[in-house]
Amino acid sequence: GDSVTQMEGPVTLSEEAFLTINCTYTATGYPSLFWYVQYPGEGLQLLLKATKADDKGSNKGFEATYRKETTSFHLEKGSVQVSDSAVYFCALGRSSNTGKLIFGQGTTLQVKP
Amino acid sequence: KAGVTQTPRYLIKTRGQQVTLSCSPISGHRSVSWYQQTPGQGLQFLFEYFSETQRNKGNFPGRFSGRQFSNSRSEMNVSTLELGDSALYLCASSLASVGRGTDTQYFGPGTRLTVL
Fold it and tell me: B94, B34 in Cβ contact below 8 A?
């Protein structure tokens, strides 16, 4: 069945450092891919998404490219801020599996001043 | 536009009791999905409702049930609570309908359930 694997955290970076959080998926066909972020005590917020191969999603300085050949959707940001400290989730969805997102385990990011 | 709202935000129950959680989707959204989030299992899909019908279901026991009303508001119910049901329960809404592909889900803040 479909699955999503994220790099284990926590990831600790200094402010202005470059961020990469790896995400790979197992699925047939062309699922949609998402990155969500969860701040302490809150629900999930959509960060970005991509619905087909080679699509690049971007938002608030974060980017991720849907790579079908490597089944990956890695999250990147050129310069992180303390306010980016949160848990990041990679997720997969299919139109044939309505309403269901399959999530990775989440990666905790801590950014130090 | 108001976001997804969930009530109550926090709940404490004892084993054997039952609980009902409520979710109001974004106006115009017809699909509501529910997820359970725990430190050990992460985020797991419970079920999805669309037009008052359960359209998809995850791998949870029958103690977990839900429903959706004509205004798209949804409730989930857990009967005979167990300690392992302690979790953050998240609901998400989307426009999703047949043929639209995978629409974006927008999440509420969650209900934190503690079972003692």
Answer: no
pLDDT score of B83: 97
Q: Which tokens belong to B42?
A: 């992460």
Cβ–Cβ of B56/A98 closer than 8 Å? yes
Query: Residue A84: what are its φ and ψ, rounded to 5°?
Result: -85, -5
User: Is A98 near chain B, with CB under 8 Å?
Assistant: yes
List, for chain A, all residue ranges whose pLDDT scores fall below the cut of 70: none
- Cβ burial of A14 (10 Å; 0-12, 13-18, 19+) is exposed
pLDDT at A4: 97
Q: Which residues of B touch A (CB under 8 A)?
A: 4, 6, 31-33, 35, 42-43, 45, 47-50, 55-56, 58, 90, 92, 94, 96, 99-102, 104-110
Top residue of B5, B33, B35, B43 to mutate, by most chain A CBs within 10 Å, is: B43
**Each residue of B5-50: pLDDT tens digit?**
999 999 999 999 999 999 999 999 999 999 999 998 999 999 999 9
pLDDT confidence of residue B100: 52
Residues of A in contact with B55 (CB under 8 A): 98-99
Distance to chain A for B44, nearest Cα, Å: 7
Q: Which of A49, A100, A103 is closest, CB to CB, to B104?
A: A49
Residue B89 CA to residue B6 CA, distance in Å, equals 9
Does A44 lie at the interface with B, CB-CB under 8 angstroms?
A: yes
Which positions ≥6 away from A21 have C-beta within 8 Å? A6, A7, A11, A74, A75, A76, A88, A90, A107, A109
